[in-house]
Amino acid sequence: MGVPRLRLGQRFYRLNRWLLPLLVVAAVVIFCARLVVDTPSWQSFAAANPCVPVDSADFNYPAWLRSLHWVNFLLMALLFRSGIQILADHPRLYASMHCSLDKEWLRFRGPVPKDKIWTAVDDSTHLTPLLGLPGGRHTSGMARHWHFLTVPLWILVGAAFITMLFVTPQWQRLVPTSFEIIPRAANCAVTYASLHLAPGELAGRSYNALQQLAYFSVVFIAAPLSILSGIAMSPALGHRFGWYGRLFGNRQIARSLHFLLWCFYAAFVIVHVSLVIIAGFARNMNHITLGTDNTSWWGVVIGGFIITAVFVLLVLSHWFSWRSPRTIQHFFQWVADRMNGLLFNRVVPRVHFKKEDISPYMWPNGKPPKTEEYERHWKEGFENYRLRVFGEVEEERTFTLDDLKAMEKHQQITEHDCVQGWSAIAEWGGVRVADILKLVRPKPGAKYAIFFAFENPAAGDQYYDAHDLRQLQNPDSILAYEMNYEPLPQLYGAPLRLRNESELGFKQIKWIVSIEIASDYRNHFKGEGGFREDNEYQARSAEI
Question: How many Cα atoms within 13 Å fall on the side-chain side of residue 337?
Fold first, then answer.
């Protein structure tokens, strides 16, 4: 990714140009803090509000705490790396649902070219594997697998930590019990700003007031917000429980908050490691590895071994992602199938918007087929177009576009959530898939509808996508021939595109030419249930 650019008003400013001013500000803060700490009034304040109280409890480091600390270190590293890789697939952050061009508040690449079709895939950026997992460009499928496989483990570790915290006296280490902590934390902050350690910081194993607030914020504020903001980006839940997304303002604010929490964790880790080194490296490493309180170097040796093992595992995760991506994809799909059965299978989308909510811009993804057949249909206004529905049905049917328009029309204004991260609101008009299924009557045992697009040699394999018949019975699952009260534009899928509002955007297949009803999708192409699933290792289930 490129240098981040922050938008102020209508202009974007490269954040690296702010480095020198920030260093000047930091120098001024340090200078002022060093002046303040030597004044009699501040010394009186510090004596009345000690950063580390003399009577503070001295806590040990039990085995459960040490073990969970190092497991959390590994899981956070996986979440950091996979999370930044997901961001690289659409390196722009917005405060509005509409994700319009040049309206992002932060971006990691330049403006969108205005002289050609520029899709969201074109906009994705390359990320070095030193930072991202698995690295490369447009690899969000594999990054999402790592991210969502790690999140449940991270939640379990956090739940275990909080449980043990409150069944032992260790909770007193993290949880403030008095508002006196605020002036004491201010004392700590000024002391650190003056480039000094707090008096008594090297003597015990308790946290000073500022550390206590920081650790409390990480465990009881930042971590829950990370989980809750992540859930807010699920299309299945967001399109069913609209009130939940509004708790954050909208999906894009939740996504921005998710990124800012990533930055908060990164800053916390940098400060945390720096203090471990500065405030008695050997002793602190003995605390967190052996649970002892001395200055031997065994803790450093063992801690170094653990850190090396974690880095080896990170290297192996990268290697395995490129060596056996199907294995990771299949394992995630196995987990996702069970999660969907628990959380999403009974969730029916019902969130609709008003006409005034329609987005002024919607990112395109994919380009219209470049074949004589499609271009002929386009020039003819799809007059001779035929939609074929076949497979495991009692009656195969062929529909003209006029046949579909003669059926009962369903209109909906819904939110489109792309797997890359952007979103848009649009009106869609068309025929319910359930009405078509009634006409063809799927045979017993049929489970999927496999949608095929017009062949597009420029894309390689034919674009197709498999959907559960159960989901397609939802009222908002439609074949759309209208977008924003106009005939469906070529760029967005004419003559027909699918709208299955429980799924992410890559499942909303465009330029549909036929539908096969089948009991299995695995005998098509590479057998993963869709073009993106076959070639980009996305999950077939895309409710999250």
Answer: 8
Give the integer Cα–Cα distance in Å for 173 and 60.
10
Helix, strand or coil, per DSSP, at residue 302: helix
Same domain, yes or no, for 290 and 364?
no
Question: Which residues are within 8 A (CB) of 183 and not within 5 positions of it... i.e. 6 or more apart?
Answer: 45, 48, 49
The pLDDT of residue 9 is: 80
For 109-211, list the strands marked E by DSSP.
126-127, 136-137
Q: Which residues of the chain have pLDDT under 50?
A: none
The neighbour count for residue 227, using CB atoms within 10 Å, is 15
Planar angle of CA 302, 308, 310, nearest 5 degrees:
105
How far is residue 447's CA from residue 299's CA, in Å, rounded to a whole number? 57
Q: Are residues 318 and 172 in the same domain?
A: yes
Domain boundary pick from 314, 343, 372: 343
- Sheet containing strand 106-107, edge to edge, reads 11-14, 5-8, 106-107, 92-93
End-to-end CA distance of the chain: 24
Q: Which of 313, 343, 373 is the last residue of a domain?
A: 343
Residue 196 lies in a domain: yes
Q: Do both 377 and 242 map to the same domain?
A: no
pLDDT digit string (tens) for 105-122?
999 999 999 889 999 999
CB 499 within 8 A of CB 467: no
Note if the bond before 444 is cis, omega within 30 degrees. Answer: no
Sign of the dihedral through C-alpha 321, 327, 330, 335: negative
CATH code of the domain in which 360 resides: 3.90.420.10
Is-contact 463 412, C-beta < 8 A? no
Q: Is residue 314 domain-shared with residue 388, that is, in the same domain?
A: no
- Whole-angstrom Cα distance, residue 531 to residue 537? 9
**Token pair belonging to 262:** 């990533």
Considering the domain boundaries, does residue 462 fall inside one? yes
Tell me the three state secondary structure of residue 57: coil
Same-domain check for residues 458 and 504: yes
pTM over cut 0.90: yes
How many domains, the chain?
2
Are 527 and 480 in a shared domain? yes
Task: Identify whether residues 88 and 192 lie together within a single domain.
Answer: yes
Containing H/E element for 285?
helix 281-289
Q: For residue 492, give the 3-state DSSP assignment.
A: helix
Give me the DSSP letters along 419-450: TTS-EEEEEEEEEEHHHHHHHH-BPTT--EEE
Q: How many CB atoms lie within 10 A of CB 290?
A: 17
Question: Containing domain of residue 23, as a range?
Answer: 5-343
Q: Does residue 400 sit in the same domain as residue 532? A: yes
- Which pLDDT belongs to residue 223? 97
